[in-house]
């Protein structure tokens, strides 16, 4: 009986430029077999290890929440005033990354690696499907001890407590249940209305879910070959104004672009655009472009009238003498 191959642990990053994400993926590939355990990059903030930019507000909230709930997850800041704290900053050096990963392995010893069901829909997709389901009056969202609901079609968000950055951090780094409520779920909707009375801005939360909980995959309803545009700038909320988002939003508010053209004009790899496009679609600011004009039908070839014998002779004479050229 062959020995079971241990599952790779997951690492992700938050608060960095997209170049840092690409660099971390590439460096991990180079270090395969050189660390205590196998590691792979994850687009989900539920990973075992999170590398974060020290001053990122959302990352700080994730650290606080993890410590309070004793999740056992490991966080590496980009800098620290405490020399005893292991830090990891961009550009990520191979030896430094190995030291951090091996330290994380020791801290995570005995804990089951974070798992992601590749075939399971992302939170972003589940929420998008619920919002677009026919007959949906509201969407219920539950994460741990907090819950809320989105009223449709206004997309008014109500939460069980004031929705601050710490609560959003919990939504982005834990298990979340989503349920579409239709006309037959009146009792469930009334219970939600009674339990979740705090109004909150919906767009910032939806944007955060689109950016951080998409599993790196484009929503099925989006066509990578079809031009699209933004009808307005989105509210970036707790995620903040990432340079990638600002660049792409600026381009898509000015013109219609297919994702491949957007990537080329923004100077960004196509593979990192998915979360941005998902977030735009989830908050409702992404619009399909105009359909490409149909190709004009090729002109039909008409048979030339038969020439008389005299006309044929005159034509050959004109061609030979190059008359009218």
Average predicted confidence as pLDDT: 85
Count of runs of 4 or more consecutive helical residues = 11
Strand content: 5-15%
What is the domain total for the residues?
Answer: 3
Percent range for helical residues? 25-40%
Could you name the CATH class of the largest domain? Alpha Beta
Report what the structure shows.
This protein has three domains: 9-107, Rossmann fold; 123-205, no CATH class; 209-288, Arc Repressor Mutant, subunit A (Orthogonal Bundle). Mean pLDDT is 85; it is low at 301-314 and 316-325. The chain is an alpha/beta fold. Strands 8-5-6-7-9 form a five-stranded antiparallel beta sheet, with helices on both faces. A four-stranded parallel beta sheet has the order 2-1-3-4, with helices on both faces. The longest helix is centred in the first third of the chain and has 14 residues, at 94-107. It is globular, with a radius of gyration of 28 Å. Helix content is 37%, strand content 14%.
Task: Indicate the topology.
Elements: E1 9-14, H1 18-30, E2 39-41, E3 49-52, H2 57-69, E4 74-77, H3 94-107, H4 123-132, E5 138-143, E6 146-151, E7 156-159, H5 165-173, E8 177-181, H6 186-195, E9 198-200, H7 202-212, E10 228-230, H8 243-252, H9 259-266, H10 274-283, E11 286-288, H11 309-321
Parallel strand pairs: 1-2, 1-3, 3-4
Antiparallel strand pairs: 5-6, 5-8, 6-7, 7-9, 10-11
Helix pairs in contact: 2-5, 7-10, 8-9
């Amino acid at each position: 009986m062959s020995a079971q191959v241990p599952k790779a642990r997951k690492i992700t990053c938050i608060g960095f430029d997209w170049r840092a994400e690409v660099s971390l993926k590439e460096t991990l590939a180079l270090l395969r077999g050189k660390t205590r355990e196998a590691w792979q990059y994850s687009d989900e903030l539920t990973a075992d290890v999170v590398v974060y930019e020290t001053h990122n507000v959302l990352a700080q909230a994730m650290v606080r929440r993890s410590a309070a709930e004793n999740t056992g997850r490991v966080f590496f800041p980009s800098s620290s005033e405490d020399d005893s704290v292991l830090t990891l900053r961009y550009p990520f050096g191979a030896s430094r990354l190995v030291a951090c990963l091996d330290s994380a392995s020791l801290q995570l010893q005995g804990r089951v690696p974070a798992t992601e069901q590749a075939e399971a829909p992302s939170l972003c997709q589940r929420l998008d499907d619920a919002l677009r389901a026919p007959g949906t009056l509201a969407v219920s969202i539950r994460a741990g001890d907090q819950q809320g609901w989105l009223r449709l079609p206004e997309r008014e968000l109500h939460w069980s407590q004031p929705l601050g950055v710490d609560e959003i951090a919990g939504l982005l780094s834990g298990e979340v249940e989503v349920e579409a409520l239709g006309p037959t779920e009146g009792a469930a909707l009334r219970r939600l209305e009674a339990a979740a009375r705090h109004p909150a801005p919906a767009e910032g939360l939806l944007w955060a879910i689109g950016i951080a909980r998409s599993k790196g995959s484009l929503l099925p309803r989006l066509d990578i070959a079809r031009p699209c545009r933004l009808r307005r700038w989105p509210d970036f909320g707790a995620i903040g104004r990432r340079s990638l988002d600002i660049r792409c939003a600026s381009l898509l508010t000015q013109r219609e672009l297919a994702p491949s053209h957007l990537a080329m004009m923004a100077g960004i790899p196509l593979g990192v655009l998915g979360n941005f496009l998902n977030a735009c679609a989830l908050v409702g600011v992404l619009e399909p472009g105009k359909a490409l004009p149909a190709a004009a039908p090729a002109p039909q070839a008409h048979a030339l009238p038969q020439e008389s014998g005299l006309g044929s002779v005159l034509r050959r004479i004109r061609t030979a003498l190059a008359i009218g050229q």
